[in-house]
Amino acid sequence: MTQQAQTIQGSIVAIVTPMFEDGSVDWKGLEKLVEWHIQQGTNSIVAVGTTGEASTLSMEEHTKVIAEIIRVANKRIPVIAGTGANSTHEAIELTQEAKQLGADAALLVTPYYNKPTQEGLYQHYKAIAEAVDLPQILYNVPGRTGVDMLNETVIRLADIPQIVGIKDATGDVPRGKALIEGLQGKAMTVYSGDDATAYQLMALGAKGNISVTANVAPKVMSEVCAAALAGNAALAEELNNKIANLHNILFCESNPIPVKWALHEMGMIDSGIRLPLTPLAEQYRTPLREALQAAGVI
Question: Which of 56, 143, 90 lies closest to 98 in space, CA to CA?
């Protein structure tokens, strides 16, 4: 494992892909965002995850966004490439591309829509790990994919050397605790994928948070994670309370609709988002603006 991959912990932003109103990628805007995150204390970046609109980018754009984030980060912080797919062959191809581009790790969402069995999930991840020599982080988000990778399957996958972590976006803290306990003695790191409960999971042994909220409040999110990792649960909770409303309202419509609107409102990105995603509905705009103000980010 690379030195960079070993240091993937703390606040890990699942970064948006900035776009112009016509839907074309704003490359200068992307560069500006990466620089801002590094200045604000973000510890690592996920390129082209769900929040980065992986589902609406072409394969060429997907790899180009990863390449650009790696170029701008310039090894100052680790870059994790989103390379998941519901076709094992496609996931292998994307993961190979990420390795060639110089990513420090890959984040692989469970195959969505086709609903594989637990054995299918195991074989899918095993095939990718055997095909590509790059640290790989599993990603379980059943509310989004329609498939739930059980703890037993994750624990089984932990024995495969390339599989080094999991993003647990279930939001189920007792389940996350059971997973952390089940992985004792194995070389797999657990990361939260649920902003609202991340500080609680870190108190139980998770090593970071792959975050949507960090897109708009990177400094506070970095401080929450640092406090949690240092074992200061009271400070982590206090800091988290500052942005608790954001965690909730950033999911008032499907991610990344609210977070892209919020970043545009903050003057950080242009207004573009790609169909079938649409700009944030009018009725959510005032509450989201108020949550941004309460969190001190605008």
Answer: 90
37 within 8 A of 215, measured Cβ to Cβ: no
- How far are the Cα atoms of 136, 164, 284 from residue 95, in angstroms, in the given order? 9, 15, 37
Residues in the chain: 298
Position 5 scores a pLDDT of 62
Q: Which two tokens stand for residue 167?
A: 């993003």
Beta carbons of 175 and 148 less than 8 angstroms apart: no
DSSP 8-state secondary structure symbol assigned to residue 56? G
Q: Is 115 helix (H, G, I), strand (E, B) or coil?
A: coil
* pTM across the whole model: 0.97
Tokens of 292: 């941004």
Q: How many CB atoms lie under 10 A from the CB of residue 231?
A: 10
Helices 88-101, 59-73: inter-axial angle, 10-degree rounding: 30
Contact of 38 with 214, CB cutoff 8 Å: no
Please state, as a whole number, how many other Cβ atoms lie within 10 Å of the Cβ of residue 76: 11
Assess whether pLDDT exceeds 80 at residue 3: no
The Cα–Cα gap between 67 and 275 comes to 24
Active-site positions read 139, 167
